[in-house]
Description:
35% of the residues lie in helices and 16% in strands. By secondary structure, the protein is an alpha/beta fold. The protein has a single domain (7-119, 186-262), classed as Alpha/Beta hydrolase fold, catalytic domain (Rossmann fold, 3-Layer(aba) Sandwich). A 6-stranded parallel β-sheet has the order 2-1-3-4-8-9, with helices on both faces. A 3-stranded antiparallel β-sheet has the order 5-7-6. Helix 1 crosses helix 2, helix 2 crosses helix 6 (191-200) and helix 4 crosses helix 5 (155-165). The two termini are 14 Å apart.
Amino acid sequence: MRPGAPRVIAIHGWLDNAATWDLLLPLLECYDVCALDLPGHGHSDHRPAGAPYHFVDNVADVIGAADALGWQEFGLLGHSLGASVATLVAGTIADRVTHVVCIEGFGALTTPADGAPAQLRKSIRRYADSRGERRRFSSLDEAVKARAGATRVSLDAARHLCERGTLEDSEGLTWSSDPRLRYDSPVRLTEEQVLAFIAAIRAPVLLIRAKDGLDFPKDIYRVRVAACRNLRRVELPGHHHLHLESETVAAVAGEIASFDAACDYVNSTSL
């Protein structure tokens, strides 16, 4: 926490946790940051049995966290899924969001209107077939290797995520995240709805993409970018977790600091 600095809520990616910011936040002297574990991730509780993981519910989770902190105005820092959530939060409460930094994500996964019945049907069947299965590991090192192998991250980066994202129970070491996070959201927004959220954002937005990161559909990406009224785009060398890799984190921090210096915003410091 850096009292007096602009307040920011940091939102991690899918199946990650607040440790995704371990390398970046020490380099961001410009912000006073609260890094969240979204429900079902890291150290946060899982959603109750019978309550699916709707993507849009994360928007209320972030706003609820800001309210609990007493933050009337705040910025947003998001990676991947967290960047998608930040986009919707910024469009939903545009009068409270001062600035937005999106890393490797902008908007949300969408489903065409005529695909909604199939999306819901698939999700209901998956939840009905759920057995709550969990993968077990003999050691943290084994979990780190599995995490690094599942996504394009180094062993060092994976270790940060695994140290916060595993737990010991009666059967050994396992992921702390809710297995149901892997199921499809019962309902997704349409592309038109996501564009409406983007168009509603009033705050300046920095979008950082990795040269070897996610492969965004170019036609969708182009329209989303055009819908944002105050957007700065940057492409940096690196992979999807470029903010958590020692070779690329400094460049990410530099771009954020430059963006912050150019922002014309006021952050309330009273609780």
